[in-house]
Each structure stands twice: as structure tokens, then as C-alpha cells.
């Protein structure tokens, strides 16, 4: 493949990935409102289009035409940069997420991801760690008490749970021996005793999966860890002073991060695109992508279900849960996994 | 795929630039299409309808600094574990013992901050001590 | 295929690092300085990546740009920036700083031009530098040859933990 073809193929993949991600973000919001509605014995959005399916479009248009307020007391440059930073960090991580096997199109052998970087997992961790700045700067630049306290709380929470998140991945790294997400998935092919899939979650990483899920919920500031924007106490947390599309950008970033978390959980613990594959060659290309999408969809439903079920933590409970429970648990899990692998090696 | 060390990072850079472009486009679109009708009340800092009192940048609990500092230290610990995890199969039991010593020493620090009440955010119990 | 436009990216990244580094020490608003420092660290990560060390680049972003700078920003965010901006710079150490910088620069240039290993390393063709196993190679030397240094790092972390708590002790 020459350099120009390579660039063109990459551009096509980026455009497709961004379009799919933005559509998924819009429809995650719709899905959340619909499912939450049904949990609470309501209908959810139902007026705009059949089943309210055009609701995300209407919401988007409304956001664009709303008053774009920049209050005079804010630090203007950072006030505008903060939501941009959030969106950039949230959208960038999908670049290294593989969604299926290789495909052959017009004589070109192309992997189903934007790029297969050797340090894929590190790239995602790095981008996640930069995501804190969007929240912290939004809180600071707004020059509002609620915003600053919300931003501060959110940053402290995100960094606290980042450690447990990082430690929970080490078990997976031990099992697969690589940072490349594609190799991590490949290491999960095959079955135990002929019927149990060889996914990491069935491979002694149950505890790690639990820790990952808890920390990821806290990282994305979702219920039951949504204290930074606890509306009964802090109005809207770090985005109190934001309106129109800038507010929507924080919303977009949150849902894009949820999708990334779902993708990463699928890749690391649930065997990625592995699943029953039958049929003609075309089905062999599409089915893995379908399995991958199905698993990510399952994670989105779980997110919404948790939001519809659980109350919110208190701040001291949140910090105690992260530091006094998840962190020791992650270290214990790591030591046990290492011992088992080292003895067997 | 060109067989080159830098090749996988080129699409990553392109994707990052595309993400920046997307974010800028959204902000620009909103700024152009949204209408503006500012009033004095709308432009004042939001404080539940009260007249804003004092500056927003007050002094905050030292806990926030401490948590950030603990985060860095334990993050360094976690990062040291990454290359170890990747090659544990080759290091075998030697690698396990090596890491047990390392984690053990860092955990002494963890027990220390736990006992010192750095991890307690509750109102009363921890405040008196120290 | 030969690497494409490597000089371009090198000058781009080092230019970025230099300019943002100068911004760090010239901006009056400490938040701006901190953000410029983040940019410097990110540019350095890019340079590490170009030096065939992707693992180091990743760690640079996770620890420095995403970890240590969060603490800096935390501290700065809560200081009253308005007052800090108005305060005059009280230390007059320009001459000393310039002398130290020039001295350090001379040492760097001397090391770069005289060192035996460096000249040898530069003669080696770049394509033979291993990339696929960069993390593994870091691991093998860190947990084999430099094992003692690695274990001492844990003691250093312990000291840092205790030190941080002792500094803030009166306020807990």
C-alpha cells in the first residue's frame, strides 16, 4: 500500500468512525431517556417521530439555536477551551479501538480500526488522564462557587479512581502480555472445555472486571458517582455557567466516554468481537462487528439500568469506597493473579 | 499498511486533528447561529438568585491537595507495574517475589496514610486527630 | 518505506516545546504557565515517540502531563490569581539564571560531542532499532539489570508519601 492510499483509507475510516460515534452518542441519550422512562413507568420521548426517534435531532437543533451566553466574569479563553478539551479527549480515544477482524476491500488488507498502535492501552489511559483538565478548567474559568467546587470534586474523584482503574488492567496485561488491544483480544480466542469462551472475565479476572466497571463509572461521573454535578447541592457542578452548545459538548463528552468505557470493557474482559461465527465469507466479516456492537450495547443498557436503580453516594463514602475498598482489592487481585501465572509459567 | 514504525501513529495524529476540528466547528456553529439578548441578571454569576457574595476562588480543604499528591505517588507505582505485567511470563517466580517486595514497601505507605486519616472525608472522626 | 517527514515533525515538536517552555516562565497568570507546561510535556512525549520509545512516551503523558500537572493546577487554581498577577517579581536573579543556563548548555554540548557511546549510537542505522518490543525491553532491563534501582524506587515512593502527609499534618 502506498502512502497516498494509506492516507486516503485512514481518512475514510476516521470519517466513518466519527459519524458512527456521534450518532451513537445522540441515540444513547434517546435510549437513556426511553429506558429510564419505562423504569419509572413513563413513556419517555414519544412525540418527535415514531417512538420519539427524531428526538436527538430536535434536541441538537435546539441546542444550536439557543442563546450562547458568555458571562463577563469568566476567563474567556479557558471558558471556551474547556468544553472543547472535553470533547477532543472523549472523541480521540476511539482511534485505537478495534471493532473486528481484518477485511479485504479492493485488494487492500485493512484492519477494522483507525490504527493498530502497539501501545493502544497506554494511549487510551493517557487520553483519559488528560480528560481531567476539561472538567477542572471549566470549574475554574467559570468563576462561580458552584462551578469551582464541582470541578474540584470531579477532578479529585477522577484522579482517585484512575489508580484502581489502572491497577485492574494489570491482570489483563499479565494474561495477554501486550499493550496492543488487538493482541489482547486475540489472546481471548478459543474455549475452555469446549463451551465456555476463553474471555478474560472467565479467566480469573472476575474481580478485576468488577473493579474496572466501578472505577469506570466513577471516571465518567455517572450515577452512583455523579456527585460533581449533584443538582440538589451544586446546581449543575462544573457546567453551571455553561449554556447552549457548550453545555451540550460536556453532555456529548460524557456519553462518548461511556461508549469508550463499554468498548474497552468488551475488548479487555468480554473477548472483544469473539462469538459464534457461521455462514458465508461476508457473514464472517459482519458477525464479529455485530457481536462487538451487541456487547457494547449491553454495557450502555447496564449504565442506564444502574442510573435508574441506585441512589447517589455521599462524598466521604465515595472517597472511602475508592481508596479503602477498591484500591486494596485491586492490589490483592493483582498479587493473586501474578502468583497463579508465575507458578504456571 | 506501510511497514514503518511511524505509520500507525499518522492516523492517530489525523484523528486527533479531526477531533479538534469537530470541537471548533461545534463552538463556531453555536456562536454564529445562536441569538444573543444579554441582560444584567443573566450575566451575573449564578448563585440561586441571590446577589453574588465575594469572590468564587475561596480557600479549599487541604484534602484536595493531599488526594492529588497521593494520586501521583500511587500512579507512579501502577505505571511501574505495567512493563512488569507484560513480561511476567518470562520473569516467572523471580518476577513475582521482586514485585511482592516492591508492593509491600509501597503498601506500608498506604497503611500509614490510612491510619493518619488522610482517606477520611467525614466531618468529625478524623478532624480531631493528627 | 522510509520514514516520511521526520525532520518536519522533529522541528515542529521541538519548536513547540521551546516556545511553550518560554511561555511557562514569561506568563504572569500561573494557570497559563501551567497549561504551557502541559504543552511542553506533550511535545516531549512526541519527541520520545520519534526516538522509538513509545512506552516512555505513554508514561510521559500519563504521569507528567496527566498526573503531576493536575496537582500543579489544583494548587494554582485555588490561589487568588488576581493578586498573584499584580505582585512584582521580587527576585533579581537574571544574571545567575543566564550563567547557569549557559553552563548547562556547554556541558550538554560537550557530552554530546565527546561521548563514545553516543557517537556509536548515531552511526547505527535507525531502522534496526527495535520497536515492537519496546515495553518488553524496558521491562527486561528494569526488572533484571536495574532491579536494585527499581526496589529503591519503592522506598522513594514511601518517603514521598510520608513526607506529603507530614507537610499537611496540621491541617488534616
Give the structure's gist in a few sentences.
Chain A contains eleven helices and four strands.
Question: Helices, strands, pairings?
Answer:
The complex is a heterotrimer of chains A (345), B (130) and C (172).
Chain A (H helix, E strand, L loop, with lengths): L2 H37 L15 H11 L10 H17 L9 E4 L2 E4 L8 H22 L3 H32 L4 H6 L4 E2 L3 E2 L8 H14 L11 H4 L9 H26 L11 H29 L5 H30 L1
Antiparallel strand pairs in A: 1-2, 3-4
Helix pairs in contact in A: 1-2, 1-9, 1-10, 3-4, 3-9, 4-5, 5-7, 5-11, 7-9, 7-11, 9-10
Chain B lengths: L8 H25 L6 H4 L19 H24 L1 H29 L14
Helix pairs in contact in B: 3-4
Chain C lengths: L5 H21 L3 H21 L3 H25 L2 H6 L7 H21 L1 H8 L10 H12 L1 H21 L5
Helix pairs in contact in C: 1-2, 2-3, 7-8
Average pLDDT of chain A, to the nearest integer? 85
Secondary structure: helix percent of chain A? 55-70%
Give the low-confidence spans of chain A.
none
Low-confidence stretches of chain B: 126-130
List the domain count of chain A as a whole number: 1
The amount of beta strand of chain B, in percent, is under 5%
Strands of the largest sheet of chain A, in order across it? 1-2
Largest sheet of chain A: 2 strands, antiparallel
Class per helix and strand makeup of chain A = mainly alpha
Helix tally of chain B?
4
What does the average pLDDT of chain B come to?
78
Per the principal axes of the C-alpha atoms, what is the gross shape of chain A? Answer: globular
Q: Roughly how many Å is the radius of gyration of chain A?
A: 21 Å
**Record field, number of beta strands of chain B:** 0
Strand content of chain A: under 5%
**How widely separated are the two ends of chain B?**
60 Å
Give a written overview of the molecule.
The complex is a heterotrimer of chains A (345), B (130) and C (172). Chain A has 11 helices and 4 strands. Chain A has 345 residues and is mostly helical. Chain A starts with a helix and ends with a helix. Chain B has 130 residues and is mostly helical. Chain B has 2 domains: 1-36; 61-130. Chain B has helices at 9-33, 40-43, 63-86, 88-116. In chain B, α3 (63-86) packs antiparallel against α4 (88-116). The radius of gyration of chain B is 26 Å and the shape is flat. The model of chain B is unreliable at 126-130 (pLDDT under 50). With 172 residues, chain C is mostly helical. Chain C has 3 domains: 1-89, Four Helix Bundle (Hemerythrin (Met), subunit A); 91-128; 132-172. Chain C has 8 helices and no strands. Chain C has helices at 6-26, 30-50, 54-78, 81-86, 94-114, 116-123, 134-145, 147-167. The longest helix of chain C is centred in the middle third of the chain and has 25 residues, at 54-78. Chain C is globular. The relative contact order of chain C is 0.07. The mean pLDDT of chain C is 80. Classes of the chains: A mainly alpha (345), B mainly alpha (130), C mainly alpha (172). Chains in contact: A-B, A-C, B-C. Chains A and B meet through α1, α2, α3, α4 and α5 of A and α1, α3 and α4 of B.
Amino acid at each position: 500500500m502506498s502512502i497516498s492510499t494509506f492516507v486516503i483509507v485512514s481518512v475514510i475510516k476516521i470519517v466513518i468512525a466519527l459519524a458512527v460515534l456521534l450518532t451513537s452518542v445522540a441515540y444513547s441519550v434517546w435510549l437513556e431517556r426511553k429506558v429510564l422512562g419505562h423504569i419509572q413507568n413513563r413513556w419517555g420521548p414519544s412525540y418527535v417521530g415514531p417512538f420519539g426517534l427524531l428526538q436527538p435531532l430536535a434536541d441538537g437543533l435546539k441546542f444550536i439555536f439557543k442563546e450562547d451566553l458568555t458571562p463577563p466574569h469568566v476567563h474567556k479563553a479557558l471558558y471556551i477551551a474547556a468544553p472543547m478539551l472535553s470533547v477532543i479527549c472523549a472523541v480521540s480515544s476511539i482511534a485505537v479501538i478495534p471493532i473486528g477482524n481484518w477485511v479485504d476491500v479492493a485488494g487492500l488488507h485493512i484492519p477494522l480500526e483507525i490504527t493498530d498502535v502497539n501501545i493502544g492501552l497506554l494511549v487510551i489511559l493517557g487520553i483519559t488522564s488528560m480528560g481531567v483538565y476539561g472538567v477542572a478548567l471549566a470549574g475554574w474559568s467559570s468563576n462561580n462557587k458552584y462551578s469551582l467546587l464541582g470541578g474540584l470534586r470531579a477532578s479529585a474523584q477522577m484522579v482517585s479512581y484512575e489508580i484502581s482503574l489502572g491497577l485492574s488492567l494489570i491482570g489483563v496485561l499479565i494474561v495477554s502480555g501486550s499493550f496492543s488491544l488487538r493482541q489482547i483480544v486475540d489472546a481471548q480466542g478459543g474455549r475452555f472445555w469446549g463451551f465456555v469462551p476463553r474471555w478474560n472475565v472467565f479467566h480469573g479476572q472476575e474481580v478485576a472486571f468488577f473493579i474496572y466497571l466501578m472505577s469506570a463509572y466513577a471516571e465518567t461521573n455517572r450515577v452512583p458517582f455523579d456527585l460533581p454535578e449533584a443538582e440538589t447541592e451544586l446546581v449543575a457542578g462544573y457546567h453551571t455557567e455553561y449554556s447552549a452548545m457548550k453545555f451540550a459538548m460536556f453532555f456529548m463528552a460524557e456519553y462518548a466516554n461511556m461508549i469508550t468505557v463499554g468498548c474497552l470493557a468488551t475488548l479487555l474482559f468480554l473477548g472483544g468481537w469473539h462469538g459464534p461465527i457461521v455462514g458465508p465469507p461476508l457473514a464472517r466479516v459482519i458477525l464479529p462487528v455485530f457481536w462487538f456492537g451487541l456487547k457494547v450495547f449491553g454495557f450502555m443498557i447496564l449504565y442506564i439500568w444502574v442510573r435508574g436503580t441506585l441512589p447517589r453516594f455521599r462524598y466521604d463514602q465515595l472517597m472511602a469506597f475508592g481508596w479503602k475498598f477498591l484500591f486494596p482489592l485491586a492490589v490483592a487481585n493483582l498479587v493473586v493473579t501474578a502468583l497463579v501465572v508465575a507458578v504456571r509459567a | 499498511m506501510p511497514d514503518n514504525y511511524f505509520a500507525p501513529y499518522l492516523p492517530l495524529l489525523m484523528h486527533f486533528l479531526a477531533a479538534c476540528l469537530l470541537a471548533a466547528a461545534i463552538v463556531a456553529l453555536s456562536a454564529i447561529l445562536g441569538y444573543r439578548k444579554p441582560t444584567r441578571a443573566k450575566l451575573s454569576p449564578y448563585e440561586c438568585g441571590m446577589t453574588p457574595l465575594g469572590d468564587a476562588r475561596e480557600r479549599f480543604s487541604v484534602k484536595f491537595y493531599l488526594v492529588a499528591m497521593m494520586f501521583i505517588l500511587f500512579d507512579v507505582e501502577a505505571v511501574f507495574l505495567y512493563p512488569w505485567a507484560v513480561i511476567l511470563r518470562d520473569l516467572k517466580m523471580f518476577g513475582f517475589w521482586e514485585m511482592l517486595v516492591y508492593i509491600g514497601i509501597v503498601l506500608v505507605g498506604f497503611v500509614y496514610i490510612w491510619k493518619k486519616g488522610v482517606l477520611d472525608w467525614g466531618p468529625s472522626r478524623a478532624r480531631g486527630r493528627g | 518505506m522510509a520514514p516520511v517527514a521526520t525532520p518536519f515533525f522533529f522541528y515542529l515538536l521541538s519548536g513547540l516545546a521551546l516556545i511553550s517552555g518560554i511561555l511557562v516562565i514569561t506568563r504572569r497568570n500561573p494557570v497559563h504557565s501551567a497549561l504551557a507546561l502541559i504543552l511542553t510535556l506533550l511535545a516531549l512525549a512526541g519527541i520520545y515517540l520519534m526516538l522509538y520509545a513509545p512506552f516512555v512516551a505513554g508514561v510521559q503523558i500519563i504521569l507528567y502531563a496527566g498526573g503531576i500537572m493536575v496537582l500543579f493546577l489544583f494548587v494554582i487554581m485555588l490561589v487568588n490569581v488576581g493578586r498573584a498577577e499584580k505582585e512584582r517579581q521580587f527576585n533579581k536573579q537574571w544574571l545567575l539564571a543566564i550563567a547557569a543556563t549557559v553552563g548547562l548548555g556547554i556541558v550538554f554540548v560537550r557530552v554530546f560531542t565527546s561521548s563514545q557511546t553516543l557517537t556509536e549510537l548515531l552511526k547505527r542505522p535507525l531502522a534496526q532499532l527495535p520497536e515492537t518490543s519496546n515495553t518488553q525491553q524496558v521491562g527486561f532491563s528494569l526488572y533484571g539489570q536495574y532491579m536494585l534501582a527499581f526496589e529503591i524506587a519503592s522506598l522513594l515512593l514511601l518517603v514521598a508519601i510520608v513526607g506529603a502527609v507530614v507537610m499537611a499534618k496540621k491541617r488534616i
